Amino acid sequence: xxxxxxxxxxxxxxxxxxxxxxxxxxxxxxxxxxxxxxxxxxxxxxxxxxxxxxxxxxxxxxxxxxxxxxxxxxxxxxxxxxxxxxxxxxxxxxxxxxxxxxxxxxxxxxxxxxxxxxxxxxxxxxxxxxxxxxxxxxxxxxxxxxxxxxxxxxxxxxxxxxxxxxxxxxxxxxxxxxxxxxxxxxxxxxxxxxxxxxxxxxxxxxxxxxxxxxxxxxxxxxxxxxxxxxxxxxxxxxxxxxxxxxxxxxxxxxxxxxxxxxxxxxxxxxxxxxxxxxxxxxxxxxxxxxxxxxxxxxxxxxxxxxxxxxxxxxxxxxxxxxxxxxxxxxxxxxxxxxxxxxxxxxxxxxxxxxxxxxxxxxxxxxxxxxxxxxxxxxxxxxxxxxxxxxxxxxxxxxxxxxxxxxxxxxxxxxxxxxxxxxxxxxxxxxxxxxxxxxxxxxxxxxxxxxxxxxxxxxxxxxxxxxxxxxxxxxxxxxxxxxxxxxxxxxxxxxxxxxxx
Length: 500
Prior knowledge:
The chain is mostly helical.
């Protein structure tokens, strides 16, 4: 967003107050303040909408791509793996870009890669060319997946940080649903799968148009000594707070930044004092993929066809199953800052366990062919699994990870956490077909139910409640200068919180 001309010479919050600008901001209507906050989040999550579209588009288009390339089952798995490898490289590289260019500019420049990946995918006419295009698309999706949670955490007021973080997952799920609907609508058109890939470029176009009214992260601005711009952004994004509260927030951020090194090296990130936050952030983001959710994204149409539906109906159901997910995400958006992160994790993971067990049963009891009743039960169990995922692991791992890292290392640390997500995603995808052959679909989903149970235990033992706590204070509850990994594993986050 562009800043008002009469604030260009403001270098401190006191000058901001004396200019009368702060008073004008705080008198703005509630609706205008909410619009400004959610507008910035909306522009940011266009990147994660593309991430959802890019990962979801393969499932409904596999059969049509096969008609052009006549690939084997192993090649089908490779389509997904190349995208995930690109995502892994992109998420790891994102820390350099977001620390050097800023969160806002990284998202803007990332649209160039989105356009390249989309164009190459749409016009590819051999498999190596298609692999390269999927790698580029994965790279851009990986950058977005790492930067967006950081950006949202850094612009959101503490009391809205959870709900705004859920918006990210709403955009991912919307992207997956949109890819299935686009594939269903273009299914009967010649080369329809190419058009399906191509329309995802619209997200980049929209983001580039809206970027002129898009704020940079105030915490990144302060870390680069751009105090004037940071003060203005903080004031606009916290317009409902009093002048004293805004001044206190700015002071906390500045004090926090002053106690940290200007550019923490990668080597510094692995000091003992950071082990706890890395354990929590990396593990939560990895669990998100090991519970089996992406087997229902990449192979949803295939699974539904095995449950007794034809291809067109399987593609349509893949999209429709996503609608209850959006509803559950809206419930999560309302609940997360009222009841906290951990209660939603407990409820959601319990639902995922039940859904995975029942889905496994439908495959175990299929006999020679699927009965209509079992087909319906399979769809219902998939819906239960996916809406439960939306309530908990869909958004909360990235919310917590982006909350607990210190300001000066948040970019690097978040790139490592999202790297864990992509690594786990690659491993889950590579193992999917071998596990299906070894365990069958029933054994696979019972295995995933066990992963959900392990995640539930991890949350209960290690993960702190972060609701409503300023991010400048959160990491202090978890970081101990010379704490050993053994103590980290055996100690309770809640007890450490009490000592702060």
